[in-house]
Amino acid sequence: MKKVEAIIRKTKFDEVKAALNQAGIEFFSFWEVRGVGKATEARIYRGIKYDTSTIERILISIYIRDKFLEPTVKAILSSAQTGAIGDGKIFVSDIQDAFRIRTAEQGDKSLYLEGGE
Which domains does the chain have, with CATH numbers? Predict the structure, then answer.
């Protein structure tokens, strides 16, 4: 099992969500986050330009079976990329084990409903 975390632009969230659904990812968690990096965003309020040192992004967290890793990463890359600095990052981690609390199923079985692939 793998954990895929992606930090993406807020403006790309709907495109990434649609691409993940097409790749067979039916559930993921996400949060609005802020960070600092090389990219900066300027905001204009009442005609005055303000430079902010924090950048707003979306953090997506997905737990998947190993066989879904490549399609998941490709879906995020193809839908989140603009080619400009600040597009984000993807991180992949190994998951030792998982449990479904309701049924006590363990491992891969805990990630999907019975009969699901």
Answer: 2-111 (3.30.70.120)
Report the C-alpha gap between 25 and 63 in whole angstroms. Answer: 9
Helix, strand, coil percentages (3-state) for the chain, rounded to 5, are 30, 40, 35
117 vs 66: CA distance, rounded Å:
12
What the block records as the tokens of 26 is 């039916």
Please give the biggest Cα pair distance in the chain. Answer: 57
Span 27-45, pLDDT tens digits: 999 999 988 777 666 667 7
Single-letter residue type at 68 = F
Cut 0.85: pTM above it: no
| CA of residue 75 relative to chain centroid, distance | 10
